[in-house]
Amino acid sequence: MRVTSFADRHIGITTEARQQMLTTLGIDPTPSLDPEAEAPIENLMRQAVPASIFMGRAADDDASGIPMAASEAEALAELRALANRNTVNRPMIGLGYHGTLTPSVIQRNVLENPSWYTAYTPYQPEISQGRLEALINFQTMVSDLTGLSTANSSMLDESTAVAEGMLLARRASKSKSNVFVVDADALPQTKSLLATRAAAVGVELVERDLAGGEKLPEELFGVFVQYPGASGRVWDPSAVFDAAHLVNGIAVAAADLLALTLLRSPGSLGADVAVGTTQRFGVPMAFGGPHAGYMAVRAGLERQLPGRLVGVSQDAVGYPAYRLALQTREQHIRREKATSNICTAQVLLAVMASMYAVYHGPDGLRAIAAEVAGKAALLRDWLVETGASVVHDAFFDTLNVRVPGRAATIVADAHAAGILLRPVDADTVGIAVDETTTFTDLHQVAVLFGGKEERVFGFFGAGSEGALPEALLREDEYLTHPVFHVHRSETAMMRYLKQLADRDYALDRGMIPLGSCTMKLNAATEMAAITWPEFAQLHPFAPVEDVEGSLAMIDQLEAWLAEVTGYDAVSLQPNAGSQGELAGLLAIRGYHLANGDEQRTVCLIPSSAHGTNAASAVLAGMKVVVVATDELGNVDLDDLHAKIEANAETLSALMITYPSTHGVYEEQVTDITAAVHAAGGQVYVDGANLNALLGYARFGDLGGDVSHLNLHKTFAIPHGGGGPGVGPVAAKAHLAPYLPGHPQAQQAEHAGGYVFEGGPVSGAPYGSAGVLPISWAYVRMMGPGGLRDATAAAVLSANYIAARLAEHYPVLYTGEQGRVAHECILDLRPLKETTGITVDDVAKRLIDYGFHAPTMSFPVAGTLMVEPTESEDLAEVDRFIEAMIQIKAEADAVAAGTWPADDNPLVGAPHTAESLIAGEWEHAYSREVAAYPVRSLMAAKYWPPVRRIDQAYGDRNLVCACPPIEAFA
Asked: Which of 146, 324, 433, 708 has its CA 20 to 30 A from that of 816?
């Protein structure tokens, strides 16, 4: 009896289905009797992938640097062995990362629930109302606590949020200065990241001890204050903000949200922008991430906000409905004129943080903060008893304690006792208290400083003040909306989370065929380890001996990713694909500067490229020059050569996506890369479409010098409703020294012996390290053969869809042999011309058939880009095909006059249950056609909670916080 492998479980296409699909494509599915012969599906892959880059299947997968596939039990056992090499000590380091208690109801019903972690970005808002409501809660929470009018739906982490705040200040300020003032008491990782980002765009950073009274420069465009400071100091920055405003500067504050339940808000002190992290709202430290950063702005700056913004609009019958607002996916519209390259968020973690606030409510949060502040003040008292001096009189949760000459000894003794403290310098120890800190922890710390060995703990009343200055105590209310008051019991919370999940469409309901997004299965075994304490409870700046298991796992994953891409070195630090793009371009920039080629600043980008490419190039200090594409969707070689010749002396890089954004393998890719290299440029290959290449070709072999990879696409990290993303950057040896390093990393050396000397692009040394066990497990369980089989299955499914739908919808682009890659673009423009039915109508009607629509109007307006991935079985693929065929027939019926152009099931879609039963049915089509266009839906029907949403109404009437309950009456 054959034992089923993980790859068999992950890949939906069975042997029998594969034979049927190949037959449909005109390929003989009969396996050869010759054991040396290629499998029939290899014929399809040879037709699709250019021969110049095609890698034949190795005779022996043992030759691969990827280990042979492990079973699920074996992979978990290996992960357990790695986890056992980590040591979870009590984290009292602080620096923006704190121990927190994740309510079990949130861990089980959000983080571990596929209804939440397999959802995608809410581009179809009618079937995303649950996560959009959770994000509205998040925005309301942030806006209330920061005292600013509008918050976005999350940032990548605190440090990158500060960098985005700097860029926003530069855009919004009327000052002509290039000076941005940085608080000397800012988090050290934020200072390092700001230096990376500022250098590329010509910003001059000036550090000032603002709390110590140092004056601002005469000219500046912005000022940044940490509130409370990294040292724990709490002070009133309002005078600094006022001074900045006098010279047309923008005031940015990085604020601790838990502290803001007790402290005056940044908005009340005069800040224009507030940024920070929501990590301590129930999201584990996870060795640095993923966590949801945040950004909020005062009135007048809403349209400057980067990232995602959820707004309130209304549906076709006037019912309140949520959707993404304003600058959503602005990179695809504005490209090199985009103000940020961030096109995603940290939705899953933002949902967790918002639900932490919903569960605890304002009183609960205030009580947690008061206990933290009270314990920090109690520790101060005990330490003063020992003769140590606490540097600052006013603080929330962090103390800097002076012990001349003894800091290193105390930190080492604390580590031996299972407590992590921070050595600030030779004479100073940093200590942070959080909601997990116990009185025993406080006593142990005091003993380390020479305090009493025995102490009687009496009644402790956690006052609301601790050691906070009275003038800065908060007096205004926050989180007043009913959502933060009515879900106190676990029963109520569980039901609320279930209610929201039921409003959404995720992979646990059916296929999400979004082109360019690779919505594959996130297997339960891959997910299992991320909540193990040995991974989840690690502080990102824990000593190296505490994190040996995680570092070993990271080294292995780096080596595996280098192997499958044909590169030499990999940095896992970028915490989104956009940040991986930026890191790769910064590496190219660093390489040219090191060679004395300061003039090489031009980046060639095909017109079909992902919009983030152009935005990333601008943020890397490059000038974008667009290269045309031909009628087949390939790079126009004549235009490329002309652009290379015109910019020969200034050419820095070419960015291309392979396979192309149009879903085809360009035959001349090696000619393209060779031409760029001959002119002295470097080649950046966007790794978004690696799922069509893995095991059959490698970026490094086709001429790539550097690429980012989307672990949330090809390597099975969940999309989580729009994040977390993980976008490692991989490079050839000559660019490796310029990849992102980190001054607080536990070790300098990476897999292959490389040392990265580039500046950091995320706050934590290894980015979103907490979810890396997912991709490690994916590669470990798939093995080299499984990875290759997954690619073949994805390409087979895409070509099968293209072939079966070709007579109903033209397939816009194919390769020289008529094949597509892992996705196909269906052209709906002829449908609109003949029937009046638009791509939006088809997308919304697919909801009635129980599907999430494919990617709409990208990269070509009026089209649908379909990507089935390898995870879907033939029955689900056929169900989608049949839905698309029937929708075409419905459109033809409109053209034939069977239904009016303004009253048919397509323009009326999607149909809610209420729309079928409320009042008289007055439509030209029947209720049955509206709700059950195919009989199979009778058994399991997904009902959208709202009708088609009016997008323009929401932008005209911008509301980005929880609407009042009366709105839903």
From this structure: 708
CATH number of this structure's domain 530-771, picked from the four choices 3.40.50.10490, 3.40.640.10, 3.30.70.20, 1.20.1300.10: 3.40.640.10
The Cα 250–Cα 260 span in angstroms is: 21
Residue 1 pLDDT greater than 50, yes or no: no
Predicted pLDDT at 607: 86
* pLDDT value of residue 117: 97
104: exposed, middle or buried (Cβ count in 10 Å: 0-12, 13-18, 19+): exposed
Strands, sheet with 949-950, edge to edge from the N-terminal-most edge strand? 320-324, 310-315, 949-950
Q: What is the pLDDT of residue 957?
A: 78
Average pLDDT over residues 659-682: 94
Distance from C-alpha of 151 to C-alpha of 135, rounded to nearest angstrom: 10
Task: Give the pLDDT confidence of 43-52 residue by residue, as tens digits.
Answer: 999 999 999 9
Helices (H), 806-911: 829-835, 839-848, 874-895
Structure tokens at 507: 């992979």
Helix 874-895 crosses helix 839-848 at what angle (to 10 degrees)? 130
* Superfamily, domain 782-956: Aspartate Aminotransferase, domain 1 (3.90.1150.10)
What is the pLDDT at residue 969? 60
Residues 6 or more apart whose CB falls under 8 angstroms from that of 198 comprise: 166, 180, 204, 205
- The phi-psi region of residue 394 (left if phi > 0; otherwise alpha if psi is between -120 and 50; otherwise beta) is beta
| Dist CA 650 CA 659 (whole Å) | 27
Q: What is the pLDDT of residues 76-131, one digit of tens each?
A: 999 999 999 999 999 999 999 999 999 999 999 999 999 999 999 999 999 999 99
* pTM for this model (two decimals): 0.97
Q: Do 782-956 and 530-771 fall under one CATH topology? A: no
Six token digits for residue 307: 């990232």
**pLDDT tens profile 683-713:** 999 999 999 999 999 999 999 999 999 999 9
Selected from 3.30.499.10, 3.40.50.300, 3.40.640.10, 3.40.50.720, the CATH number assigned to the domain covering 109-356 reads 3.40.640.10
User: Helices 548-565 and 772-805 sit at what angle, rounded to 10 degrees?
Assistant: 30
Query: Which residues partner with 273 through β-bridges?
Result: 252, 297
